[in-house]
Amino acid sequence: IDELSRGGGCLACHLNYTDQSAGQHQAYIAGQKAENLLPAMHSSLDVKISNNHCFGCHSRSGRISANYEGWHETLLDESEINEEKKYRIIQDKRVFEFVSADVHHTAGMECIDCHNDLEIMGDGNRYLHEEDAVKTRCEDCHFQTKPNLITYGELDSAAIKIFDLRKYDHINKDMIKGKDSEIALMNTFFENDTGWMVGKNSGKIHPLNPPASICIKDKVHESLTCSSCHTAWAPQCIGCHNEFDENAEGYDLLENKFVKGEWVEYVGNFLAGKPTLGVRENETKSIEPAIPGMILTIDLASFNSSDESMTFHRLFAPAAPHTTNTKGRNCKSCHNDPLALGYGRGALTFDLNKRTWSFIPEFAANKYDGLPEDAWIGFLSNPTSNQSTRTNFRPFMLEEQKRILTVGACLTCHDENSGIILRSLDEEFNNYVLKVSEECVLPVW
Predict the structure, then answer these.
(1) What is the pLDDT of residues 99-110, one digit of tens each?
(2) In the chain, which end has fewer C-beta atoms inside a 10 angstrom radius, N or C?
(3) Rounded distance, CA 20 to CA 27, Å?
(4) Residue 313 and residue 294: Cα distance in Å, rounded?
């Protein structure tokens, strides 16, 4: 198991080698599998699943494994690197730059300390998207009131087997159940009105701290997910172009052989910053981080000369960046930030005299839809379509943008910790703005 491992089945997660067994295995392979080099020590199949087991599959696309440890992929070549501590070159030669690690990683937690077997190996249900199978929630561990509990004797047979294999010593203590999932979190226990988590590999005990008071202070922001505020940064790639090179050698995965001709991808920029925010609509509405799922062109004419068309897509995707920080976003980073609203990077300004907002984008407009290269939607406009990789996930509608920017206008003058702003959290905002001073300048739409 290394940074290139992308296996399937049991071995993808449960295979482990000691230094001795790995050495014997490599000698056997290097010796053309000679009989006299047969390994005397076998690799183990066990429940010690490290972050390395996750990395091979989860260091691409959303790059969760890399992000969790603080690493952001760049377009640099390894020959350009001279600051070893700032950069990391992984086995496939991609170069990553350190931004900031997830607070849970800094505390010594591994992927499986939060994620469980039912999420990874399946719970018997079919899901359209893999993220729908994930039942772990921040609120499972960071709870306000006493959580639902379960005892060892109430566990099912599979859970008991895992509990025993991990040799937990809290067999006589109540364990916590997932807030929504009702799944037993076997590496937790509840004692003296406090929750605790045990590292599945390390054995380190972590306190399960309640959410900060500001997170639960008001009902105004109850639709915001924890990650919408507490994501420090997210990977964002823009300007992707694909064309067919008939002279390049490519690999046909269906025929399992090298062939002449290959689709080549050209990338514009890899960026790291606060994520855009989007709206997930299921039974309830929630605000979640979003990143460019694909802002790309496909040159069909390069593959078929009789087809002169160019396919263009601008689709954002819901994201779980795994770059959690303790402090969270401030008010302006949502209400006064064009990237958060979906407009892209640039200068978003409220003119107190004209009582209007204006936006100057940082990136030039894409010739296919007229939007800035990193944008999800146009400035103060309704989306032209869903523009998302999920049918239940969308950008902010115009009326939602106006509501957000009305608060942003207030923050232009008032500090977010001022009494005026804090009081606005205690009642419905549309009613609150009716009571503001005559000196206050609100937007004219």
Answers:
(1) 999 999 999 999
(2) C
(3) 11
(4) 7
